[in-house]
Sequence to fold (534 residues):
Amino acid sequence: MTTKTHLLATLIFSILFFGLRAQESITSQSIIVKFKSSNISTNEVLEKRNFLNDWRLKGQIKKSDNLTYHYGANLLRLTAASEKDQLEMLNVLRENNTVEYAEIDVIGNAHGEEKVVPSDNQYYKQWAFQNNGNIPFTASKTGADIEMEKAWKIEQGDSNIVVAILDSGVKTDHPEFSGRLWINHSEIADNGIDDDNNGYIDDIRGWNFADGSNEVNDDSGHGTNIASIIGANGNNGIGFSGVDWNCKLMVLKVLKNDIGYYSWWVSSIYYAVDNGANVINMSLGGDVESQALNEAIQYALDRNVVVVVSMGNKNSDNISYPSNYLGVIAVGATNPDDSRTTSFFWSSVSGSNYGEHISVVAPGNFIYGLSNKNNTEFDTYFGGTSQSAAFVSGLASLLIAQTPTITHKEVKELIEKTANDRVGDQKEDLVGRDNYYGNGRINAYEALLVNAPIPFELKEEDLLVFPNPAIDFIIVRFPSETELIQVFNSFGVKVLERRNNDEIEDSIIFDENGVFFVQVSARGQKVSKKVVLL
Fold:
């Protein structure tokens, strides 16, 4: 829509006289009345309500609306049945010598930051997303979380993004994974034939590299917990919420009783890459260097796949492979008070590994998730850098969903540069990058905010009215996004309305002098200005 002239006034003139912007309020059919007397007796109140009762009898006041008298402020609130009735009531009240003022009861909107709070009934346990500082079983700190609620307002994921979970398997029949498991559409289920010639028969939902089968169910619970952190269905009223509510989860079983051969890991990496994974989560590690494992990791990175690896849980600087391989995102763990986890709840001699190769840290202790035992168990929690890595993998998938052309290097850089620095023990969490917290604790909101589209904001200065005061006509300039233009006189009577598909003049001529209110609406926002015609 090209720039043209638009005019709009508002019924809320009692508010606009004080210069408030109209996009911050919505008019209603209610009225606030203040009486002049500071000490109103019961009889006087009843007397004043008599003319209101007349309006009730005429149906001008909604019968369901209860009149409320506030003794401290001498205020009365009533709701008209229609805009016409409201205007009449306003005029009568303003002419009554017992009334100090009568005005529209405006509905204002909050000025806080918008968030998305999922409806999942176990969500309150997920301190990593919303930490209120009241974790019952350990020290906690308000705000020691990844700001997920604000992040979900920006991005909730894309079903075209695939996260490969190299772990102990997943409870595939859990309702929280319904519609979320990756399916190999090139394979025909249960026909005993390798239809896509990839070397794996009937690999409909990934592959079990530990047993050489297509059975990928979880035997320990670790993989189910990791998968639920990354991608449990969110905002569905049950269970927990994953970081990403829409991505597909590729289940690759590479652990049996929580141990696995490097060869299983290597094979699963090639499988994940060749079958379209965008992110690979490796919440695992070994103590020995491996060229084969390194080459597999580089194979993934060369094909623009993000690889996220846990640092290990020995509270030492001993390397857990493949966390130190060039290009991966190596993740350490923090507690609910943002301190580095120096002992997980399950062992006093455990803790988050550290070293020169650490990228970031993320919540990793007392992390609730889905159970592999049944679909109604929600009291299971894990602790480890495994869980921390899962949060980062979920964030990586959201970043790719937000910007499909982003590279794995850019994902890593974004997560690192937007992490919160100096949140933990000041002896370890030094200014800038350090060997204990890396670049800091991840912040999903800040990471997604970098490439988020700039939100449209209709500002008062976008509505230009001149001359003002004016004689005979007014010129108004407004943004191209304008959808509606209206003009009201000081009595709240609409004298003009134009929509964006109407022909709008460059100037408006009025036959009478007076005060008018010009209002422009665009993308659910409004701005208004008072104009005077002499």
About this structure: The chain has a mean pLDDT of 85. Residues 345 and 383 are 7 Å apart (CA to CA). The first strand starts at residue 25 and ends at 26.
